[in-house]
Design brief:
about 280 residues; alpha/beta; 11 strands
């Protein structure tokens, strides 16, 4: 399957598939140095905390609601303790967790986003996991829409698990290329996001990932707001230039996607909650 980077370069990329675990991966894959310019575009909101247009404003409002849900989720899983958010962006989630008495640390490779996060978090955000002391362990580690961006995937997961306490939890939120909105938009689906998304997961590939690292899959939680946001962007990629039309269609298709789900893991994006054995 060939897909276009509609957001930045307009280049085409091939999606390949692993026959055993069903993991899809982008090919050719830019190196860590080469991929930096592909993140330089106004609609990449996770590296900025200021609203520049209506879509960005909506994204920030939804993000505020999502942060509260994430806080409730981690507090359902573990008593308040130590939290690591890998790929923390501008640090809103960690900031809120810190206000709720969590001891927080963040990892954010992007310098602009990391600088904004550290203004909120008193320099508790680092550029790589290697900057965290080897004996530091966390009750909960979160990667919200980050796993698909990581070049050294298996090495990074191994490092993260070493920092996870026994019976601790690692939460992996990923887009689902088998969701209703993905099927509806096909090659225009914004969740592909090539080449920034190096990997493309479904439930089978996520379960295989957990088994590979001896993790127990405890639960799958939906992220229903994502279907609306992804559908709005997908309308743009399809060439829908009508302001009213694109928002109306995006909202309707997002709702249809959520209503079409039959089981956990069917949503546009899902959180896979793993525990360390």
């Amino acid at each position: 399957m060939e897909l276009k980077d509609y957001a930045v370069s307009q280049e085409n990329f091939i999606i390949c598939r692993c026959n055993s675990c069903e993991l899809l991966f982008t090919n050719p894959r830019p190196t860590e140095e080469e991929i930096v310019p592909y993140y330089d575009f106004p609609d990449y909101f996770s590296h900025d905390d200021k609203s520049k247009n209506l879509t960005h404003w909506l994204y920030n409002q939804i993000r505020k609601i999502s942060i509260q849900k994430k806080i409730r989720l981690i507090e359902d899983l573990a008593p308040i303790g130590r939290l690591l958010d890998y790929g923390c962006g501008t640090g809103e989630f960690l900031h809120e967790a810190n206000l709720n008495q969590w001891k927080v640390v963040g990892i954010e490779p992007n310098p602009k986003a990391r600088e904004q996060a550290n203004l909120k978090l008193d320099k508790k955000v680092y550029s790589t996991i290697n900057e965290i002391k080897t004996d530091t362990q966390f009750n909960v580690i979160t990667l919200f829409h980050v796993l698909e961006h990581i070049h050294q995937l298996r090495k990074t997961i191994k490092q993260l698990i070493k920092h996870l306490k026994p019976n601790g939890y690692i939460l992996l939120a990923i887009p689902n290329h088998e969701s209703g909105d993905a099927k509806n938009y096909g090659k225009y689906w914004a969740g592909w996001d090539v080449p920034r998304h190096l990997y493309h997961f479904n439930s089978k590939s996520m379960e295989a990932l957990g088994k590979e690292f001896d993790l127990s899959l405890e639960e799958i939680r939906p992220m229903p707001f994502d279907a609306f946001y992804v559908s709005l962007l997908s309308e743009k990629y399809k060439g829908n230039t009508s302001f009213f039309g694109s928002y109306t269609k995006g909202l309707i298709n997002g709702l249809k996607s959520n209503l079409s789900t039959e089981r956990p893991g069917d949503y546009s994006s899902n959180i896979y909650i793993f525990s360390k054995k």
